[in-house]
Each structure stands twice: as structure tokens, then as C-alpha cells.
Specification:
The protein has helices at about 5-15, 30-35, 45-50, 80-85, 130-135, 145-150, 165-170, 195-210, 225, 235-240, 270, 310-335; strands at about 20-25, 60, 95-100, 115-120, 125, 140-145, 185. The protein has about 350 residues and is an alpha/beta fold. It has two domains: about 5-225, NADH:ubiquinone oxidoreductase-like, 20kDa subunit (Rossmann fold, 3-Layer(aba) Sandwich), CATH 3.40.50.700; about 230-335, Cytochrome-c3 hydrogenase, C-terminal domain (Cytochrome-c3 Hydrogenase, Chain A, domain 2, Irregular). A hairpin with a 4-residue loop joins strand 4 (about 115-120) and strand 5. The longest helix has 26 residues, at about 310-335. The protein is elongated. The N and C termini lie far apart (about 65 Å). Bound molecules: iron/sulfur cluster (3 copies).
């Protein structure tokens, strides 16, 4: 590379805008998705935050879990100030990450359900929904992480007092940012670490123009991560096909009769593993309770009861599997023996026939 080319590349890199990641973990949340992200390895959050991957723009992460300044505490307002800067249009572009479900602040006469920092004009907590109203229309993309933020999750169960909902329910399912990007949903309770880090990585590449519009399904999930069912990637699929079902924990057989919803749940966890390829609910003995699905948890309860549909499919698989198992047993016994010509003696007894 010539000196001119080198200096022009340096100039381009220096001119490239910093992409800010503003993370609000103050929906109705247990912070489980923030904690999950610390376990990501493909890529890790450290690789993203430090810009260690080729082609990444300059990144500034404003996330309670790794920011030292987490105010306002003792007059230190540095952390929250980034969010006000974004509102004033001083951060461009920025990715708005939301963790936790959004309560309905309109259903009560006083107080607030959840907030994030203080409003300097009133000295009162700024509600999470007010942050969404202020920041979402200015964000490059809004990323809802975890099932609470995507669809309401546990806090939005029937009978809850807060009117909790997902970010799309709050802003509208047709909401798009000025860049024309719909709200991106990465569900899971908690979210799968690498599903989240990979989606953040994709959006950062999209921000630089290196990736096309993120492909999403009807529920707002990245299609390449949520295009298959748990069942399609489960280690125990062979047992299901042969009609062999566990009746107690500790068995290696299919868990459908113990309450596994894997055949109808979109999630790549059994294929991907949980951390570093290891784990993944049914693979390691846990039933799938459908935590990535918009109907979670109500439509999957009571947990640990066999799903209603599994009675028909399980019975069919039991009958079909019983026959297949017997036929396979015949073949297996045949294949489990060496060919007859492999023996000692003076005569050549190969299986060769003319
Ligand atoms: Fe916690 Fe699950 Fe909600 Fe995430 S989706 S905030 S892990 S309850
Ligand atoms: Fe399917 Fe669940 Fe059985 Fe795995 S354990 S094969 S996901 S029903
Ligand atoms: Fe949730 Fe089921 Fe995926 Fe486990 S396998 S993470 S329970 S959707």
C-alpha cells in the first residue's frame, strides 16, 4: 500500500463515526440477559466492546454491567448523561438495547413501575417508557433482548398488576427507526449468550453498510437463529422417532412425556449448546418450556405436564417407533457381527463371488 493510500485509509477510519450502544436494563427485568451476555463466546462481548473483530466500527458500550460510572450516585451523573446526549441528538448513530418488559404507566394514579436515572428537570425517576418515547425515534435500531423485552415474558403473565408488555407491544409492531429498521427481537429467558452477541455483531456490520437488512421472522426474531425447532436440533430426536420416552429424569430418552415442547418451539439452543457449545436444555436433561416464544409462559403451563398435542404425536410415534425398532433390531444384530469368512485356516475364505 502506498503512503497516500495508507494515510487515506487512516483518515477514513478516523472519520468513521463511533457507534454507541445504549443499554437500558430497567424494564421489568431480573438482569438475566445482561448476565447471560457475559458468557458469550461467539463472539464475546469483550471482542465486540474492544473492536477486536475485522470490519467493526468504533464502538462505545454504555451498559450498566461494564460501566464504572453508574449514576446518579453522589452527584455523579456520567452514565445517564450518555442517554441524554442521545436524546439531544449528540450521539449518532446509536443502538438502543432494551432489557425487561415495559409496564403500562397509564393504569395508575401515582408512582411509577420502573425507571432509569433521574429527570433533571423534575428530580424524579425517568420511567423506562419515557426513555423509549424519547430515544426509540432517534435510534439506528432498537434491540429488545430477552423474552420480557420482546413479548412481555414472565412479568406479563395473566393476572399481573403492571400491564407489562414487550417493546413492540409498546411502540407498535410496525414501528421502524428512521433508518427503516424494525425492532429486532432476540428472545429467551434468559437470552442465549451467542444469539445476542451475534445479533449485536450483525447490526454493527449493518451500521457500517457491510451487511444487508437483518432478516426477521413475523415475531421479529433473526431468521437464521430462530428458523428451526428445538426438536430438529435435539440430541434425543432419535428416541422420539423410535417411540422411546423417558418417564423419569435421568433417562437419556425423549422428554416429551415429561413436558418438553421442543417439537413446536423455535430455538437453536440444543444445536448451539449454551456456553462454548456445551449444554442446551433437552440435550442435558431439561424439558423445553418454550421460553423463546411469544406465548411464553402462559401458553406452556403447567410446566412438566405433557403438551396436549404430544398425546397424538407421541402415541403415533410409539406405534410406528415400536415397529421400526423391531425391524432395526434385526438389522442391528446382523450388522453387529463380522462377516463369516474372517477366520484362521489353510483355505482362503473371502466373501468374493464371481
Ligand atoms: Fe430475566 Fe428472563 Fe426477563 Fe430476561 S427474559 S429479564 S432472564 S425474566
Ligand atoms: Fe423433541 Fe423434546 Fe424429545 Fe428432544 S426431548 S426429541 S426436543 S420432544
Ligand atoms: Fe428456552 Fe426451550 Fe430454547 Fe431451552 S430449548 S432455551 S427452554 S426455548
Amino acid at each position: 500500500m502506498s503512503t497516500t493510500e495508507a494515510s487515506s485509509t487512516e483518515a477514513t477510519e478516523a472519520d468513521a463515526p463511533t457507534v454507541h450502544i445504549l443499554w437500558i436494563n430497567a424494564g421489568l427485568s431480573c438482569d438475566g440477559d445482561s448476565v447471560a451476555l457475559t458468557a458469550a463466546t461467539q463472539p464475546s462481548i469483550e471482542e465486540i466492546a474492544l473492536g477486536a473483530l475485522p470490519g467493526l466500527p468504533k464502538i462505545a458500550v454504555h451498559w450498566p454491567l461494564i460501566d464504572f460510572d453508574n449514576g446518579p450516585v453522589g452527584g455523579n451523573n456520567d452514565f445517564i448523561e450518555w442517554f441524554f446526549k442521545a436524546e439531544r441528538g449528540e450521539l449518532d448513530p446509536f443502538v438502543l438495547v432494551v432489557e425487561g418488559s415495559i409496564p403500562n404507566e397509564k393504569i395508575k394514579p401515582e408512582g411509577y413501575w420502573c425507571g432509569f436515572g433521574n429527570n433533571p428537570e423534575t428530580g424524579q425517576p425517568m420511567t423506562t417508557s419515557e426513555w423509549l418515547d424519547r430515544l426509540a425515534p432517534k435510534a439506528l435500531v432498537v434491540l429488545a433482548v430477552g423474552t420480557c423485552a420482546t413479548y412481555g415474558g414472565i412479568h406479563a403473565m395473566a393476572g399481573n398488576p403492571t400491564g407489562a408488555m414487550g417493546v413492540r407491544d409498546y411502540l407498535g409492531w410496525n414501528f421502524t427507526t428512521p433508518a427503516g429498521i424494525p425492532i429486532v427481537n432476540v428472545p429467551g429467558c434468559p437470552v442465549h449468550p451467542d444469539n445476542l452477541s451475534e445479533t449485536i455483531l450483525y447490526l454493527l456490520y449493518q451500521a457500517t453498510g457491510a451487511a444487508p437488512m437483518i432478516p426477521l421472522d413475523d415475531a421479529g426474531r433473526p431468521t437464521w437463529l430462530f428458523g428451526q425447532t428445538v426438536h430438529e436440533g435435539c440430541d434425543r430426536g432419535g428416541y422420539y422417532e423410535q417411540g422411546q420416552f423417558a418417564t423419569e429424569y435421568g433417562s437419556p430418552k425423549c422428554l416429551v412425556k415429561l413436558g418438553c415442547w421442543g417439537p413446536v418451539v423455535k430455538c437453536n439452543v440444543p444445536k448451539r449448546g449454551w456456553i462454548n457449545g456445551v449444554g442446551g436444555c433437552p440435550n442435558v436433561g431439561g424439558i423445553c418450556i418454550g421460553c423463546t416464544m411469544p406465548g411464553f409462559p402462559d401458553k406452556f403451563m403447567p410446566f412438566m405436564d405433557a403438551p396436549p398435542g404430544s398425546r397424538i404425536s407421541g402415541a403415533a410415534s410409539g406405534m410406528y417407533g415400536g415397529i421400526i425398532r423391531r425391524l432395526r433390531g434385526i438389522t442391528e444384530r446382523k450388522l453387529d457381527k463380522e462377516p463369516s469368512w474372517r477366520k484362521n485356516g489353510r483355505e482362503l475364505t473371502t466373501g468374493f463371488t464371481k
